[in-house]
Amino acid sequence: MMGNALRKGDLGEKIAVDFLVDRGFTIHETKFRHGRGEIDIVAEENGELVFVEVKTRGSLKFGEPEESVGIAKENRIRKAAMGYCVRYRLTDRFYRFDVVSIRFQGRMIVLKHLRNAFQ
To answer: How far is it, in rounded angstroms, from Cα 78 to Cα 59?
Structure first.
């Protein structure tokens, strides 16, 4: 079961990367790890760094994918983002946190891009 979830998550991240690139984002890195946190996608849009969390689900059994990004997850993402900025000496850059929500609905993909999803 876990393998299926990992494959679905990897597919969701690929879909999210393609979606962002199609909209003019530059992708700098995927799966950036720092401490206990991970940034799914580090991108740039119009000179602004964008740290993107991708949530993928196959049904609404547990709610919309983006609803699973709670305070604890946000905090881990923030810390990982700071680690990224320190590592690459980007502490003076503007940045934001987006969420890309992907839900597989039969053969359809329901995708939502939430800009500035949290501070």
So the answer is: 28
Contact 62, 82 (CB under 8 A): no
Nearest to 96 by CA among 111, 66, 74: 74
Domain that holds residue 60: 2-118
Whether the CA torsion 53, 56, 60, 61 is positive or negative: it is negative
Q: Is the dihedral of CA 70, 108, 26, 7 positive or negative?
A: positive
List the CATH number of the domain containing 113: 3.40.1350.10
Please tell me the pTM assigned to this model: 0.91
Digit-coded pLDDT (tens) for 31-56: 999 998 999 999 999 999 999 999 99
What average pLDDT does the structure give for the chain?
A: 92
Which residues contact residue 65 at a Cβ distance below 8 angstroms, ignoring those fewer than 6 apart?
55, 56, 57, 101, 102, 103
The average pLDDT across 62-84 equals: 92
Looking at the structure of the chain, the number of domains it has is: 1
